[in-house]
Amino acid sequence: MTANTTELRQVPNTNDSRHQVIAGTRPRRSSSAGDVVLSYLRIQANALTSLEPMVRAGEPDSVHQMRVATRRLRATLRSFGQVIAPADGDHLAGELRWLGHVLGAARDAEVLAWHLAETLRTIPVELLIGPVQARVQGHFAPVGAAARTALFEALDSPRYKALLAELDRLTHEHPRGPRTADPARDVLPAAVRRAYRRTKRRMRRARHAPAGTARDVALHRARKSARSARYAAEAASPAAGKKAQKFAGQMKKVQSVLGDHQDAVLARQAARDLGVGAYLAGENAFTYGLLRDREDRQASGLQADAGRVWRRASRRRYRRWMH
C-alpha cells in the first residue's frame, strides 16, 4: 500500500451526499449547469473550511484531505469556464494553487519519509549497513517541521483570509458564464471530454518521451490531467449519473498509479541524496544504493502498469456519455 491510498474515516468525505445537504440543495438531472457546478464548489468549500481545524490540530491525513479539497476547487474553476467566467474564477484559482503548494510541501515530506521507511522494511537486516533509518528520519524531520510551520503561517495570513472571502463570495453568487443557465446535461459532459482529451494527449507524449527524466516529467503532467478529468466528472455526475461516476473511477485509477510512480521517482532521488550525505559523513552508502535501485525498479514497473490502466480507462464504454 502506498500513502496515496491512505484514508481517515474521521475526515469529511467530499463526495458524501450529506455534504451536499450542508452545502445546499442537491442538484437534479434537469438542473442548470450553473446550479450543478455551484453545488460542487460549495461542497468542496465546506470540506476545506471543515478540515482547517483538523490541520491545525495535527489530525492524521487532514493535510492531504484539505489539499484534495483545494485541488477539486481549482480543477472545477479551470474545467468549467463556460459556467464560471474566467473573470470570476481565474484569480481564485491562482490563490488555490498557492494554498495547494503550501499544503503539498507539508504533505510531500510526510509521504516521502513514510515511503522510504516502508521500502527499508523490505530490505533484509543484514543489508542495512550503518544508521540508515536514523539518517532518513533525521533528514525529513526538520523538512517536515519547517513545512508545517510555513503552513500554519499561511493559514494565519491575510492572504488565506482573503482567499476564503473570495471563495465565499463566489459560492454565494450565481455564476456568470455564457452557458450558466443552459441544462447541465448539455454543457458539462463536453467540459469533461475536453479534460479527458488533454489527459490523452499527455499520456501519448509520455509514451513517446525518452526514458528517464523527460518521461517522468511527462507522466507527472499526465497525472495532473487525469486528476482534473476525474474531478470534472465528479462535478458533472448529478446531471450525467452513474456513467460519469464510473468514468471518474477510471480516472482515479490512472491518477493513483501515476501518483505511485511519482512517489517512486521522488524516493529514488531522495535515496541518492541520502547516500551522498552518508558518504560525505564517512558512512557506508551501500544501503542507499540498494534503496535507489529498488525505487528505480518500482518506478519502471509502475510505468508499465500506467499504460495498462490507461488503456482500460480510455475505453469507449466509459466515454460514450460525453458525446
Describe this structure in words.
With about 325 residues, the protein is mainly α. The chain has a single domain (about 15-315), classed as CHAD domain. The protein has ten helices and no strands. The longest helix has about 40 residues, at about 240-280. Mean pLDDT is about 90; it is low at about 1-25.
Notable traits:
single chain; 323 residues; CHAD domain; disordered N terminus
Q: Could you outline the blueprint of secondary structure elements for this entry?
A:
Elements: H1 17-23, H2 33-57, H3 62-79, H4 86-121, H5 132-155, H6 158-171, H7 184-208, H8 213-240, H9 242-280, H10 286-313
Helix pairs in contact: 1-2, 2-3, 2-6, 2-7, 2-8, 3-4, 3-8, 4-5, 4-6, 4-9, 7-8, 8-9, 9-10
CATH superfamily: CHAD domain
| Backbone shape | globular
- What is the second-level CATH architecture? Alpha solenoid
Poorly predicted spans: 1-24
Q: How much is the radius of gyration in Å?
A: 21 Å
Count of the domains: 1
Mean pLDDT reading: 91
Element order: H for helix, E for strand: HHHHHHHHHH
Supply the helix-strand structural class: mainly alpha
Proportion of strand residues:
under 5%
